[in-house]
Amino acid sequence: MTTGKPRPPVRPSWFDTKLPRARGDITWIYLWGAPLRFSHWLSAVTLLILFVTGLFISFPMWVTAGEASSHFLMGRFRFIHYTAAAFLVFGGIIRVYWMFAGNQFERWPALWPFTRTNLRHALTMLKSYATLNADIQPHFVGHNPLAQGAYTTIYVLTTIMIFTGFAMYGQSNPGGFFYTMFGWVPSLLGGLQHVRLLHHSIAWFYPIFFCIHIYLAIRSDYLERAGVVSSMLTGGRFVASHEKFEDCDLGDQPAVPWHTGEHPVWVKEP
User: Fold this and answer.
1) Which has fewest Cβ within 10 Å: 20, 36, 124, 138?
2) What is the pLDDT of residue 163?
């Protein structure tokens, strides 16, 4: 027989807050394969490193005393910059492969959302974003045309950054592999200074894109309950089975009924 004090009841998690429970059937849609998610996060990290180190290379804001060989500060920044560029190219190769091996939301036709219907949807999305009115925007399981157009633009700009970056890198070893492979880039752009100017100018699109991308992803999760952020971690998202989407017919997907049990954090249903 137990003689100690009775144990207190287990308190529910989430700060003991009662949460409303949604009703209806849900459908799990698998959108993003592991290669695409890996490429996405690898690109995010490497682009951030590339932008910061690139700023220092173009405009060294820290000056060290003594001989350059004793601290090698610029050399270290350049090494980090080039290493991050190599990982970015690695992620790009994975993304190109997945354009042909992925599902309908990942293949290369999805990167070209410039049909008449998609352009109309893109304008509606733009109006929705400008007026903060989520009720007027069309529903997409994958990327909406406006977002996909932005991602395609980033792919194109990143390709230009890779080519111009390797063209400048090749100048350190005339006659070498990168000098030979990308030696046509300075000739095409009218000189090495124009290559540097283009490389530096495009770099400023990335912080602007990051801010807009993160804001819209969080906005979509908050206003639409779309699960955009978590889908880039888990690969998919739950959607209401009764909703209509422009890019997917849920009639072909098996519906998953809500769990019938009760949970201490759910509001008791009548």
Assistant:
1) 20
2) 96
- Let me know: does 52 contact 79? Beta carbons within 8 Å: no
Q: How many CB atoms lie within 10 A of CB 120?
A: 12
pLDDT band at 260 (very low <50, low <70, confident <90, very high): low
Q: pLDDT higher for 40 or 25?
A: 40
Angle between helices 34-58 and 192-203 (to 10 degrees): 120
The answer to whether the beta carbons of residues 169 and 163 sit under 8 Å apart is: no
Question: What is the per-residue pLDDT across 105-132, written as a single tens digit (0 to 9) for each?
Answer: 899 888 888 888 889 998 998 888 888 7
Instruction: Name the pTM for this structure.
Output: 0.78
pLDDT greater than 70 at residue 52: yes
Residue 108 CA to residue 100 CA, distance in Å, equals 7
The SS3 assignment for 168 reads helix
163 by DSSP, 3-state: which? helix
Residue type, 63: V
Is residue 10 within 8 Å of 263, Cβ to Cβ? no
* Distance, CA of 96 to CA of 31 (rounded, Å): 17
- With beta carbons less than 8 A apart as the criterion, state whether 204 and 196 touch: no
